[in-house]
Write a structure and sequence with these properties.
Layout: E1 4-10, H1 13-21, E2 26-34, H2 43-47, E3 54-61, H3 68-77, E4 86-87, E5 90-91, E6 97-101, H4 104-119, E7 130-133, E8 137-139, H5 147-150, H6 155-171
Parallel strand pairs: 6-7
Antiparallel strand pairs: 1-3, 1-6, 2-3, 2-8, 4-5
């Protein structure tokens, strides 16, 4: 199986990780940081909003099972790409909507998907998602990996993630896997 990598930031990585772990064709989801100046940042540093990093997930996926365009449609449907540096009550540049394109082909697909969403007037406000070239990815600390799978009753997770998963199941049932990713 030939796999590809995607790096996406759509707010809190606990939420984003849970969404993409539910998809078939995604073999690995890892929470981390991307887009900043500081090498190997930690959670507290990134949460300060002063490092320039975004909370992201790095996905390993099989393009024969799920395309990059399908991943992006899920991405746009499960966070608000119209709010700069914010997702709900989470505020700061670390929560920005961003796609770190790993290839020129990914950049083209990202631009095409965004143009399609704009043409279809899917959102009431303009999309502010940044489309950037690949940058170093720094894995988040172990306690942030598979956070929702390990902490489904944590109040933040319990309030925010089930509605995202319900939306995912409603709009993309054919993309769901039968079991969650274990990595």
């Amino acid at each position: 199986m030939a796999t590809e990598v995607a790096v996406l930031g759509g707010g809190c990585f606990w939420c984003t990780e849970a969404v993409f772990a539910a998809l078939g064709g995604v073999s690995r989801v890892e929470s981390g940081y991307c887009g900043g100046e500081l090498p190997a940042p930690g959670y507290d540093q990134v949460c300060s909003g002063r490092t320039g990093h975004a909370e992201v997930v790095r996905l390993q996926f099989d393009p024969e099972q799920i395309s990059f365009a399908e991943l992006l449609l899920v991405f746009f449907a499960t966070h608000d790409p119209t709010t700069p540096d914010r997702q709900g009550h989470d505020r700061g540049s670390q929560y920005r909507s961003v796609i770190f394109c790993q290839t020129e082909a990914q950049r083209r697909v990202a631009e095409e998907v965004m143009e399609r969403l704009l043409a279809e007037a899917v959102f009431a406000a303009p999309i502010v998602t940044q489309v950037l070239a690949a940058q170093p990815f720094w894995p988040a600390e172990a306690e942030h990996q598979q956070f929702f799978a390990r902490n489904p009753e944590q109040p933040y997770c319990a309030a925010l993630i089930p509605p995202k998963l319900a939306k995912l199941g409603h709009h993309f049932p054919s993309l769901l896997r039968s079991t969650a990713v274990s990595d």
